[in-house]
Amino acid sequence: HNVNDAAVVALDPHSGEILAMVGSPDYFDARVSGAVNMALAPRQPGSALKPFVYAVALDPTQAEPWTAATTLLDVTHHYVTHDGQAYTPANYDGQEHGPVRVREALASSLNIPAVITLEHIGLPALFELLHRLGVDSLDDPGRYDLSLALGGGEVSLLDLTAAYGALANQGYRVDPLAILEIRDRAGNVLYTPPETQRQRVLDARVAWLITDMLSDDEARSLGFGRNSVLRLDRPAAVKTGTTTNFHDNWTVGYTPDLVVGVWAGNAGHEAMQDVTGLTGAAPIWHATLRAMLAGQPAQAFTRPAGLSQVEICALSGLLPGPDCPNRRLEWFIDGTAPQEEDHFYRRVVLDAATGALADEDTPPGARLERLALDLPAEVWPWARQRGLLLYADLRSGQAEAPASLAEAPGATLRLTSPPPNTVYRLSRALPGEEQRIHFTALVPAGAGTVTLWLDGALVETLSAPGYETWLAATPGAHEAWLESSGGPASPHVPFEVQAP
Hints:
Layout (H helix, E strand, L loop, with lengths): L4 E7 L6 E5 L27 H8 L13 E4 L4 E2 L5 E2 L10 E4 H6 L3 H11 L1 H11 L23 H12 L13 E2 L5 E3 L12 H11 L6 H4 L12 E6 L5 E8 L2 E8 L15 H12 L14 E7 L13 E7 L11 E7 L15 E7 L6 H6 L5 H6 L17 E4 L4 E4 L10 E7 L7 E5 L2 E6 L5 E5 L3 E9 L8 E6 L2
Parallel strand pairs: 17-23
Antiparallel strand pairs: 1-2, 1-11, 3-6, 4-5, 7-8, 9-10, 10-11, 12-13, 14-15, 16-18, 18-21, 19-20, 19-22, 22-23
């Protein structure tokens, strides 16, 4: 798999003592740049930064803190980078997973929810936390985009492992300590490290919640399967990271008294071949922890005061309503438990002959009770692709409604395709008339007549049942937007078509 280098750091999360630091497999092997200490070299951490993104979102001092049960919509989202480029994050498996709770999103390392979370908290808040944790290589939020949630910056393995130490010790900063003392030949002490005051940098309850999610084998089954190499014979929290094109992969994890970080890759930045954090760094992490803890009793993570378990509806993360079929217990920081009852599930009565909602003309023998899903408009296409029964389709009478149909309560008028700043390139291999651009719209209820405008000209009126159209791809820079008779216009969407 072209993996020639690896590095390991092991720390005591309470004292900061470096118990082991191996910068490469062989210092003297120049063929693999063995003299380069990869425990100290800055590299992109992939998804290994995600726990800290979510830690900011869970901070109970915020006006509206998220919880482990907060539901995120794991479907395609489009963003624009600070240099105006289109950015559309995708999950490692290439799939959308619809509504997912923060617990699943973090434990299974889903990319789209992580980017949604970073947009929510903002880059400055993440940088502030990382600096409190001792990660100083990320110094200017203005240089980065939302891709930082997936590891777009560079950190050292030593700094990142120390940052995870704060999760292991209930929120105290870990400053790595390499030298305990220096004596001369007569035994006189020449140096001891200065005593430092322990500095709390993270709410103990947040640290415990992140730990609980990272040690939840069921919650990470969506991304890694059950009983993977991430599971030890004792309580352990762990997170992997893999960068684009397999240049770096990471696994950092901990027990209550030991934190171990592993990097695997190539010191010269050559790409590995189909190696992820799960298959490259994780086996080393697993073996290192097992070896260092051999013969020691297993320890559970101590749960701090101020947390309580509440039963929730598994899909929405809200309190179970009478129609919620799947429930589970979730931990909440006191004062953050949901107060609202689940509204994702709605019991409906269908006409067996038509599949539509029953009315007064439906005979008693043809009335069928079913559970429909009343989901946010953004996930309707995802739900339809999976054949789920949507209340929105039943209400509109569109049993086979196209994916672009919206008319969503609370939605705002906007183009959902093309994504902002998309660049299309025409092909010489296809006739020009066959190269067209797909325009789709999200339309709020009561929008009235919806018109599509392109470069200042009205080009088409969009109407139900499908708010979509295809237009010829004409070379040049373009700008499209929507106008409606019942509300404000949509944001303008720039895009470009390049000649072959």
